[in-house]
């Protein structure tokens, strides 16, 4: 909720595709735009590749596509998600709302059903406490933040949303509160249905808890739920990636040809590039390493957005802000300190991949800026022959 404050302020004030890319340009200029764009592109495309692969793994558990192989099934899924997004913004948005609503209804039904059953028998067994110190704390935070990952993606759709000044803050805070309530309800239901020892042994707690309700079909039902759940996230990830690629092209970092919107409101060319790039990551296995690097990079984006909000409060105090962080500057610096603390925890928890991610983005950004500077300073080409030449 704290981290969402600057997202809500800037998303409502600067409702543009690519979200943080537009915030960085307004607050810090061209160089930071390049860094932000490369960070978001790498994070989003590698995430889509991973999610498509996980969806294919869930299908394999159901016996679907085993003869083709997980990579081939994941590629087919990406093609299908491309088609669903290419149909048009309204249709793809409606599909996403339907899939997300289905997920929510299934989880609510699970909570009700588990609480309607006798709970796990009480036990005097006490599990040993794990004393992992700050590294354990960092690992726990990583899991929690991964579960909520994507809450800020709505700012990437500023140009697709009617009345973004009101809709974006409502979506951010309402979404976080709603998901928090749903997640806590599911966890309470699982703690009621399973003993701590059973939870510790379980690789799929929801399916194990539902066995008392569904018998041997519990695993199949929740594997099918996994297909719809992760598939919906994959579809949304590809939709978000297309907006990031579109914004990157509009800034001139990628060819301007990709900064085109079809008559149905879809950045079709950017969507195609995002799909092909995700497939490339998928088959190269590069997404595995990139996902490991993206934890610190994602937290770095939170820091950037907080800094941009503080900077613009100073440089553009008269900017129209349909939503403004309350009690500023106290809240602004509180959010920034919170984001910096989490960034330090995540880097300390996994310093190697954090450093790899930062070096990769820095190298790509420096290479692009150097190339752009070289082209800009090159002598103009001779277009006419000199007299008598």
From TrEMBL:
Subcellular localization: Membrane
Location, primary (coarse class): membrane
Pfam family of the protein (one): AA_permease_2
Keywords: Membrane, Transmembrane, Transmembrane helix
Transmembrane segments: 33-56, 68-88, 100-120, 132-151, 172-194, 221-246, 289-310, 322-346, 352-371
Membrane topology: Multi-pass membrane protein
Coiled coil: none
UniProt key word Ribosomal protein: no
Name the UniProt record assigns to this protein: APA family basic amino acid/polyamine antiporter
Source organism per UniProt: Erythrobacter ramosus
